[in-house]
Design a protein that fits this description.
Helix content: 40-55%
Number of helices: 19
Length: 453
């Protein structure tokens, strides 16, 4: 059986033509910490022109650059910044362009977008906001822009000794500099001026970070929604779910109130976790995996309805050994907590940067390993009407991840893998081979390339 989600993407594939993506109009990611934006998380971030915000706070989303990309798409031209989806489609797979455009919040705007001028201002229905880089973790593929813990580490130790120095403090100046709370932030100010016009049109509002549970703006949004219920709103928060207990207690008490009655349509809790146990903690220094598991269980047990959990499993090259254990746990949660509707989801976005953590660095045997996991998922495909097992599009997404592993990495990239994780171990008091003994042959190969250089 084909799911409604997959069917909508397949239908939208024919409607969109070769280049159109409704996310360019109806979705926006806003990094208010430094005035950067993109339509989704695949294209590179670009600058928001602060000089336009006084007269038009919607210029947070309707940037001149984005309007030009809309023009190209309406003309049937593939814009360069969306190569992530083009590469997937050229391999014969559905891309996020099809999935996102097929969702109701975007699909209902298709005819209007085709008929209006490309340079019209748009009020998006799906908004993601990063209010702050405050975060208690230093995830290996993150950066000082999105983590205050990373920023402190970079200031203390400097850049990582990769071929191009990684996360060099000198790099995070100019438009990459995070604006501290104590300074005037024109982007944050413009957001709250835009909020009264934006809020009535929202269908999905997602707060990311940083760690939103540590940010006061998260609770300002919560209080606004509690005072101004919006029964068609999907309110979403992305968290590492590994914060201090007092923060979590405050947070879960607010979410319980939001999920009562008809204040919102649904609350989606995104939880970032890439693999299992100690290996997950290695990828994300500062993570307490047991605390994360306990908080997930509490969330699903204590909040009775109008909510779900989605795990964000970023597909990097360290997930392969333990990902089956993680997916097994996710399926167990489905069996215990999904009774009248699906409360437990997961997504598998593909990591591209930093390049030494991409799946393409791995030997072909790791693609075979993921293929066996994909086949196991297919053997446990969710029957029609059930909430246990794996959905067709989850299996399809794993297939597309595997298809992206066919381009071999350069010896320099493999050398950078060794350089980065050797320094990672030094800074965090870890030992790669103690945590990933099954990757010793690959690690030795990367060491060889680093020593050769």
């Amino acid at each position: 059986m084909t799911s409604d989600f997959m069917r909508s993407a397949e239908e939208m594939q024919g409607e969109l033509g070769p280049a159109l993506c409704l996310a360019k109009w109806q979705q926006v990611s806003l990094h208010l910490t430094n005035g950067l934006t993109n339509s989704c998380y695949h294209p590179p971030l670009h600058d928001i022109d602060a000089s336009l915000l006084d007269a038009n706070p919607s210029a947070l989303h309707n940037t001149p650059q984005k309007k030009l990309r809309r023009k190209e798409m309406l003309e049937g031209k593939r814009c360069d910044e969306c190569s992530y989806c083009w590469n997937i489609e050229d391999r014969g797979n559905l891309s996020d362009r099809h999935y996102r455009s097929g969702e109701p919040w975007a699909a209902i705007h298709l005819d209007r977008i085709r008929s209006q001028s490309w340079d019209a201002d748009e009020i998006p229905s799906y908004v993601e906001v990063n209010f702050s880089n405050a975060c208690n973790l230093a995830c290996s593929y993150c950066s000082p822009q999105f983590s205050s813990t990373w920023a402190a580490q970079a200031e203390r130790f400097g850049a990582y000794p990769t071929a191009t120095p990684h996360n060099d403090p000198a790099h995070f100046q100019g438009n990459r500099r995070v604006i501290p709370y104590r300074e005037h932030n024109p982007y944050l100010e413009a957001f709250w001026r835009w909020w009264p016009d934006l809020y009535p049109q929202l269908r999905h509002f997602r707060m990311t970070g940083g760690e939103p549970l540590m940010d006061k703006n998260t609770y300002r949004v919560f209080d606004h929604v509690l005072a101004n219920p919006k029964p068609d709103l999907h309110l979403n928060v992305t968290s590492n779910f590994s914060v201090e207990p007092n923060l979590f207690e405050n947070y879960i008490s607010k979410v319980k109130l939001l999920c009562e009655g008809e204040r919102i349509e649904h609350f989606m809790q995104y939880v970032s976790i890439d693999t299992w146990g100690k290996q997950a903690e290695y990828i994300r220094p500062g993570l307490d995996f047991d605390r994360l598991q306990a908080n997930v269980e509490r969330f699903l047990t204590e909040i009775p309805g109008r909510n779900s959990v989605t795990f964000i499993v970023t597909m990097n090259n360290l997930v392969v050994p333990g990902i089956k254990e993680l997916l097994s746990w996710i399926n167990d949660l489905r069996s215990r907590h999904s009774h009248t509707y699906q409360r437990v989801w997961f997504d598998t976005p593909l990591l591209r940067q930093p390049s030494w953590q991409s799946l393409q660095v791995l030997p072909k045997a790791y693609a075979w390993k993921l293929s066996t996991i994909r086949d196991w998922m297919a053997d446990n495909m969710m029957p029609d009407g059930s909430f246990v097992g794996f959905k067709d599009y989850e299996i399809q997404r794993m297939t597309r991840v595997i298809s992206m592993m066919d381009k071999p990495a350069s010896p320099e990239t493999k050398a950078d893998f060794y350089r980065f994780f050797t320094e990672h171990d030094r800074r965090h008091g870890l030992n790669f081979l103690d945590i990933f003994p099954e990757m010793s042959a690959f690690y030795d190969e990367c060491k060889y390339h680093a020593d050769e250089r």
